[in-house]
Specification:
three-stranded antiparallel sheet, 2 domains, about 10% strand
Length: about 325
């Protein structure tokens, strides 16, 4: 049906059912695995299940349901804005990387329908998820409508930065909360796709600031969700979430693609190593293909929910795909 949201340690917890957020993530992870190992059938089978879930989740107006109970009944009238943005991200990724022409056409049709709901998105992270999908779509099959939507969202995010940023705080908002590195990443990807130096410049400046806050002696220390980081106040160091490390890795690889500066590759590696124990507590978060849900100051949340495990797998696959492209270029 999909991927279950939560787990009791590594045991799937059926009490909480499914969500479009995690299925969108899972679709991209399955496609990334299929790119690395195209002869392995399980990844294609899972990707087909996840794409079918997204197709079932889409509403007539282009938006998506998010929460589904374990008995397969939708638990909402319409999903969160973030879940709709992530669904668009997954569809754009599918347009570029699905191994089947039929899947690519389905992803394109669904994304074109979803674009009609962009004005409904009012939160910056929802914009960024949609932007990442539209950047993939632009690489796969640029159309005036999809490219125009990417430019519209990028301009919206750039204007947000220009209003909020100051010399000592070059950031998009007055606080760093969750999935922080996705903001500069989206502008870097949009700027590269659209060949727009304004977007690239803001992406690099904001990413450097984020590095100054979260990189400590070569160790990635993400903003904790136990208080976040409000401008002018002390940043929260715990509870660190696995989704922050993959966001940092992806943003650094996006920066490397536009600059060629290998410093970004080292920062990406530091983000990947967060999962393997190179973190502020020296605790290995990834084990047996799963990932713990959170790093606390004194304890670890040993549940291995979908968001956390998919974040780890996405980071590992993104790193592996980058290595594969470098080796291919050398050959």
């Amino acid at each position: 049906m999909g991927v279950l949201q939560h787990a009791v340690e590594t045991l799937p917890n059926r009490k909480f059912g499914y969500c479009t957020d995690d299925v969108a993530r899972a679709f991209m992870v399955a496609l990334a695995h299929a790119r690395l190992a195209p002869a392995q059938e399980p990844a294609r089978r899972l990707a087909a299940n996840y794409l079918a879930f997204l197709q079932h989740a889409q509403l007539d107006d282009g938006r998506f349901h998010n929460f589904m109970d374990y008995d397969r009944r939708w638990a909402d009238d319409v999903g969160t804005q973030d879940s709709c943005g992530r669904a668009m991200w997954a569809l754009g990724y599918g347009m570029e990387h699905a191994p089947d022409d039929v899947w690519r056409r389905i992803c394109r049709s669904m994304l074109e329908s979803a674009v009609a709901s962009l004005e409904w998105l009012e939160y910056p992270r929802s914009w960024t998820y949609a932007m990442l999908g539209l950047a993939h779509a632009h690489a796969a099959h640029p159309t005036p409508a999809l490219t125009g939507s990417l430019n519209e969202l990028a301009d919206r995010l750039a204007r947000l930065y220009e209003v909020a940023a100051h010399d000592e705080w070059p950031w998009f908002e007055n606080a760093m909360t969750y999935d922080n590195a996705r903001l500069p990443q989206a502008l870097l990807r949009a700027g590269r796709a659209l060949q727009d130096e304004r977007y690239i410049g803001i992406g690099l400046t904001s990413l450097r600031f984020y590095e100054s806050v979260t990189m400590e002696g070569g160790i990635f220390v993400p903003i904790g969700n136990a208080g976040w980081y409000e401008r002018g106040r002390e940043r929260a160091r715990y509870a660190q979430q696995p989704l922050e490390a993959v966001a940092m890795l992806d943003a650094q690889l996006a920066a490397f693609d536009v600059t060629g500066d290998t410093t970004h590759v080292r920062h990406a590696q530091a983000a990947l190593e967060w999962y393997y124990g190179k973190n502020s507590r020296g605790v290995r978060m990834a084990h047996g293909g799963a990932c713990y849900d959170g790093l606390q100051e004194q304890v670890v949340n040993t549940n291995c929910g979908a968001e956390s495990t998919l974040a780890f797998l996405a980071a590992a696959y993104a790193s592996a795909l980058r290595r594969a492209r470098v080796l291919e270029a050398v050959r």
